[in-house]
Amino acid sequence: MKKVLLLLTVLCGLSIGAFAQSSTEGGKWNIGLDAGLPLGSLGDLYSSSIGASVKYEHPIGTSTFLTGSAGYQRFFIKGDVKDALKALGIDKSGVGIIPVKAGLKHYFNDGFFAEAQAGAAFSTESGGSTSFVYAPGIGYTFKGGFEAGVRYEGFSEDGSNSGMAALRVGFRF
């Protein structure tokens, strides 16, 4: 499964490179901070998440962009779960993932946008796994490049699904 997801991620990256060479307009970079509230089964174990990401947006139409992003997200283990782990001799405050996604972003009038991305989330933990990640969202880009958006980020692995509601604030340049 990891090899398939990695192959899909690489193919998406190569697609972005192909579009970059065929367009006469330049793309936009976007860096930002992400905060999340785990939901469902993910919310049973983790209280919150925080991270950072970088995104490249390449124009493929007047208001439509092909996107590629990567980042780091840290999920903080809930206090009662942390206490149970300590009782087992495991001292851990959280877990990390590296989400790598590709997708489409479409701007409507006045800076509003909708975006959908999909890719892989790689665990940074020893013995960790890789899951499929998808993230539909909406947001607004202000004049000057400041951007704010909300999304649902879902994770799917071996038939189980979980997710989080996330807020991203960034700067587009």
From TrEMBL:
Entry keywords, A to Z: Signal
In which domain of life is the source organism classified? Bacteria
Q: Which InterPro entries match?
A: Beta-barrel_OMP (IPR027385), OMP/PagP_B-barrel (IPR011250)
A Pfam family found in this protein is OMP_b-brl
Ranges for domain Outer membrane protein beta-barrel: 8-173
| Residues spanning the signal sequence | 1-20
> How is this protein named in the record?
Outer membrane protein beta-barrel domain-containing protein
From which source organism is this entry? Mucilaginibacter pankratovii
